[in-house]
């Protein structure tokens, strides 16, 4: 650990007082060498660095409590503390990545255990709909209550979800547990991303995100193997695939919470935070924090998004499908709520979620649209990919998991390179014009190589290309939207990006599940030999049953053809959607990151 600390410490430096001042003083228009004068930042303000009577620097005035706490924290902690915080965040990502990898391996078999393999994408689709709705409330909590408290709340949700999945006695309880798990882990990762943004310079942020995401390189190999071991345990051994992490995760998360709280208390003692009595009565405090949290706006958005998204996940189970009354009502009411949310934020909200000038910024729009397009395209085909590899390419669950996690391996390594280039050049937009064509090419090649009898090496090649393109998307989207806003709106901007991305992913999973249900059983019925038709329902609903038939037998060949038939439709939809990424990329401005100072204190 000590050598790691020594290496990590050289990455972090304390910005001097002069540099801190540069983040607070508008220098007007500047003329870069050989270029046109840069436009003045419309959101910049002129003021002297605030200090208290003892000379201790204070957070910038006008910030909400959670943001002010974050600035006071970076003004207080040392290089060693910052290093330890990043190491703790690395281990958090390691635990999350490991658990996600195990889940991806065993989830088809858990669904098959309840004889719901064809619906194995349903828990993820429902969870994504609910998770998308929780990002904005979490952002408001981060800004008004604090980063540490919000992180602790998300930790509790994730732990509860793992306990429910480990102890479930039916598919419905399993789905409910997965919703809590996704809410918690998604919210936890979001809080960690906000803390990372609080603790880094803009030009180094890509490298910091690469560091916290690097555990996926390890878990991509280990996760499927461990998941396979849980599956191989006698009886219901898969339950330990969730129960184990219900113990490990909180033990990993709590040190970060206590570190952040300790540093905030330290900041108060050192004078970097001024807590004066508000003079408000209890009811006045309730009204004040209700306005600060924008409780009405948060409720309208959360209810609207859940009501609007859920019908797309549950319509197939309604008595009359899309014609069912409550399905139509949920869509109409949900859309109306979202429409009213926009009106509320524009005209009535005392503390808007995001400054209206940022909502209309072309970089913010471009980054959000790119994320939604990428997630929608990817999840149109990815969920059934590991099952496809096991059935069509005759791989074991471990081998299929390795291929499915090539993205984690390649992107984990490539993000360091991408982050280093961005830190050196302070530019990022140009990378999209290489990443988008490569990604579209890879998905197009997967359409051709989906057939039975093709070498699995072609699938590996396509996954490498997809990982290269996808890693660029992930970094550029985050940098673009953070570069377009100030520190007060970090949490809101990241929440907006996560919302649209999660909606895109949920829509992709919904499309994937719907297309699968309307294509795979039709193709299976067409290709299955008469001798196997009596087992049609078992074959359709269970991956275990599908892989039970020996390779080369008529029944196995029929199942492989049915998979290829369904995958053709899924991949074609995903590839067509990805073309929309080109106009999204054109919207993003080519921002010079080194000229956008945003945070101060001891940062990376």
Automatic annotation (TrEMBL):
Compartments, record wording: Membrane
Transmembrane segments: 81-99, 151-180, 240-260, 293-312, 324-344, 364-385, 405-423, 430-450, 456-482, 494-516, 570-588
Keyword Transport: yes
Membrane disposition: Multi-pass membrane protein
Gene Ontology CC: plasma membrane
InterPro entries: MFS, MFS_trans_sf
Gene Ontology MF terms in the entry: transmembrane transporter activity
GO terms for biological process, alphabetical: cellular response to iron ion starvation; iron ion transport
Region (Disordered): 18-45
Transcription regulation keyword on record: no
SUPFAM superfamilies in the record: MFS general substrate transporter
Entry-linked Pfam families: MFS_1
Polar residues bias locations: 22-32
Keywords in alphabetical order: Ion transport, Iron, Iron transport, Membrane, Transmembrane, Transmembrane helix, Transport
Membership in a protein family: Belongs to the major facilitator superfamily.
Protein name: Major facilitator superfamily domain general substrate transporter
Organism for this UniProt entry: Penicillium angulare
